[in-house]
Structure formats: C-alpha cells, structure tokens
Amino acid sequence: MKLTSVLLTALVIHASAIGTAQNVTYSANNVPIEQVFMEIKNQTGYFFLYTESVLKKAKPVTIAANNMPIQQFLEELFENQPLAYTIASRTITVTSTTKVEPNTIHIPDIIALAPFPIKVTDPEGNPLSGATVSIPSKKISGITDAKGEITIEAEAGDVIVVSFIGHQPYRITVTSAMLSASGSYTIALKRAEAELDAVEVTINTGYQHIKPEHSTGSTFTLGRKEYESRINTLNFLDGLQNKIPGLLINNEVQFEGNGLFQIRGISTIKGNRNPLIVLDGYPTELSLDQIDPNDIETVTVLRDAAAATVYGARSSNGVIIIERKKAKAGELRVNFRATTSFRPKEDYSRYRWADNASDIVVEYEKFRNMNALGTVWPGLSGSGGGNRTDNPAALIMLHWRSNTNPISEQERDRQLAELASYNNSSEYSKLFLRTASTQTYNMDMSGGSDRILYFLTANYSHNNAMQVKNDDNIFRISG
Asked: What is the pLDDT of residues 185-202, one digit of tens each?
C-alpha cells in the first residue's frame, strides 16, 4: 500500500491566531480537499496524516470561513465527506468511514492502522522539538512539535525510527499493547559522543622522531599535502615559498654571489652560507637545486641554536631535514600527477622612472646642445658620427648645428619627435618576451613485500621561460 503524508514543520503561525486558539480564514469553490489541507497547514501549523487510498473517495470542497476556529472549520470541511479525523498534539489524522462490501476485498482497508502518539525527550526528560519520527517501510515521516510530541498512524509490527541531531538514532517495533495503551509512548534519546582519532605528532630531527614536548628548539614541519599545495613545482625552493615562518627566499637578491636564503640570518661573510641538508637521516653536501621536489614527503626546518646539539657547527646556517616518499608493502601502486601553470610576461614599463622618459631625455639633449659648435659634427667621422656613442638626440642636434651639411630645423624637430615617442619597453616586450608556461608530469610506482620493497619515480618538466627561445626540459628518474 502506498502511503502519502504531508508532514512539514510549521515555522510561522498565522497572524489571525487569537491567544492559543488557531483560526482559519479561507474560501474556495469546488477544490480538492488536499488543497484545503495545505492551506490549513500554512495558516495554523497543523499538519495532516493520511493514506492515499483514504482520499480517493473524497468530494470536492466548497467552503468559506473568516477567522473561524479550526475545530469549527474542520467540522464544516468534513461534513458530508466519507472521512473522519482526530487531532492529537498538532497532527490531524484522516481516516475513511466507508465500509467494505461483503464480497469485495480491499487490501488497504484490511490493515488496522491506529493513531500512535509519541513523545521524544533528551536523557534529562526535556522535550526535543524537531525530532524526526518515521516508518521507513511505509514511507511515513513526521517532526515533533514544541512539546516533543507527534501522532503517527501505525500498526503492530511496524518499525519506527526516531532521530535527532547530536543524538543516537532509536528504533522500536510497535506492538498491539502499545497501540491500545493510553497516553503517549515516551522515547528518550541518548546523546551521541563524537570521538576524535588520536593523531601522533612527532618532530623529525634527522636521527629520530621525537614528541614536540621533548624538543627544546624552534622547529617547523611541512607535510606532503602542504608542500604540494603549490600545484606546479619545478624546484625544491618553490615548495617552501611562504610556507615556513622566518624563512627568507629571494633568488633575485644577490649577496656575495649567492641568492637570498636565510633561516637564521647571515652567519658569515666569506664562508659557506648554505643550510645543512639532511636527506633521509643522512647529512649531505647537496645543494637545494639538486633535490627533486616530487619525492618530498615531509620537510622539517631546525631554526635555532638547539640544532647545534645534534649537528654541531654545521647547523650555523640552519638545518633542513627532508624525508622522501617511501615504498609500502603490498600490491603495485601507481600514482600519476600532471600540472600546468602560466605566468604573464613581465611589464617592464612599471619600472620606468617617468611615463614620458624618452621625451624628457630628448628635451634635455635639445637644450644642452642648442649652441653646440658647428665643427663637432664633421669631426665625428668621415661618414658622419658613426664612431661616437652620443645620445641619438644629441647627434641630431649636432647634425643640425653642423657648418658643412646641416639639416633644416623642421627635419630636426621631426627626428626629435620620432625619437621622443619611442617606447623601448614596449618594443622589448613585443620582440623578446612571452607568457611563460611550465608543464610537469610525475609518476611513481611502489610495492613489494615485508622482505623487499621497491619505489621508482620518474619526472619530466618542460619550461617555456619568459624570454623568447629560452626553453629547458628536465627528466629525472630515481629509485
């Protein structure tokens, strides 16, 4: 038997309600009774519980009411209808009054459905408003009112499920004794206890993993997920940018021939200023550009003098401890990762000291050479100035002042205006720059048994640099 229920929580009580009574204002002519049910629910907050077969013989409704009490409105609504109703809490249960013909079997009418009032509370006995009460097998569900009460049509053997946020679901099988008992059946829900999985946090010193409370120094650990959050990493340092507090990286700043890379500040002027790299527990002489960023599992940085207790004077520039990805016993695992990134070409015009720099230089050279000697231009070279490195604007002025083959003033101004409008940064961007792109492809395979493990990784990177015809490809394979 297919059951249909209209069970919605009343969020707004109609403005015509007087005191605690519920009044209805509604008029309709020859409309389905279900439409009237919906209007009552919207105005009063009462909701209806009925089966689909019950309303099959319902007659169209013609009714008019103005601020009429709901009890009186229901009496007029169900007058001359083959239906009956009962009210429990805020639920109106609709049943059929049509008798079954002796020689006809209607399966829906054989089932003995009865109103089953339920009250839902918390462990302390406080009512739970908004708890969901349902009979999954019949697709019936409802929500408790402000008193935690609801009346639902059930029969012996039905399984009722009660649930509420923050509480454990409750299941109960309806018995004949429950249906015949007087009063509401009270269900007390237990609170659900959320348990967090214990996460063991350790610090890798290169020699061992210790708990944070056992460390006396300043450390910072970067996990695999955080490190790979930069979607396209070509070198190890790119994955550390803006991730580790106190770490300064700027390859565009050169000091004593080296880029800026500081963990603890500059410790020496002429000596080695590179940090100590500890790879899988072994101190190495590797440089930072020799580390494959795709093999990184965790990165731990030891930043203060406490690192000297482990690595001595070699930790004066800081210590970077790298733990690479390792194989795990089991079947073959293959991971593939492909990324692409783009970087717009540099706008060098933002570095110009003035928007009209060319015009300023031309005006300066014009003023400076306004009274130049006429003998300068012929003496520059036999062909006329080819060996001089003078400013082009100055050469135009010297040509104009020449006492042998001068140009006219109009030609001088034309050449100077053409020179003043020239934008070398725009020409450089057009001829020598492009949008940079980087593509990386990384694949690793691992597996094995408890006796032998294998881990193989291959990485290919294609980099189209910002400068035209400046490309590079990198292929790495390790195991």
From this structure: 899 998 887 555 455 556
Beta partners for residue 437, in sequence order: 342, 464
CB burial class (10 A; 0-12, 13-18, 19+) of residue 376? buried
pLDDT tens by residue, 391-449: 888 888 888 888 888 888 898 889 888 888 877 777 788 888 899 888 888 888 888 88
DSSP for 183-204 reads: SPEEEEPPBPPP-PPP----EE
Structural contact between residues 46 and 69, judged by C-beta atoms closer than 8 angstroms: no
Q: Please give the mean pLDDT across all residues of the chain.
A: 76
* Rg, C-alpha atoms of the chain: 43
DSSP 283: E
For residue 151, the cross-strand partners are 117
Predicted TM-score (pTM) of the model is 0.42
Instruction: Select the more confidently predicted residue: 269 or 165.
Output: 165
- Per the DSSP assignment, residues forming a β-bridge with 340 are 439
What does the block give as tokens for 242? 């803006």
**Token pair listed for 31:** 């409309």
Q: Does residue 477 contact residue 458 with C-beta atoms inside 8 Å?
A: yes
Q: What is the dihedral of CA 53, 55, 59, 64, to 10 degrees?
A: 180
Q: Which residue has the higher pLDDT, 146 or 104?
A: 146
Structure tokens at 378: 């012929």
pLDDT for the residue numbered 330:
82
Cβ atoms of 49 and 152 closer than 8 Å: yes
Sign of the C-alpha dihedral computed for residues 255, 258, 264 and 266 taken in this order: negative
In 3D space, the residue among 370, 348, 346 whose CA is nearest the CA of residue 357 turns out to be 348
DSSP 412-474: HHHHHHHHHT--HHHHHHHHHB--EEEEEEEEEEEEE-SS-EEEEEEEEEEEE-SBTT-EEEE
Question: Does the structure show a pLDDT above 80 at 16?
Answer: no
Question: HSE-up of 57 (CA within 13 Å, CB side)?
Answer: 14
- For residue 324 the two structure tokens come to 């690479």
Number of residues that this document lists for the chain: 479
- HSE-up (13 A, CA, CB side) for residue 191: 8
Buried-exposed string 417-449: b where 16+ CB fall within 10 A, e elsewhere: eebbeeeebeeebeeebbebbbebbbbbbbbee
Strand 170-173 relative to strand 159-163: parallel, antiparallel, unpaired?
antiparallel
Q: How far apart are CA 411 and CA 418, in angstroms?
A: 11
Q: Strand 436-448 vs strand 330-343: parallel, antiparallel, or unpaired? A: antiparallel
Q: What are the start-end ranges of the H helices in 138-230?
A: 176-180, 224-227
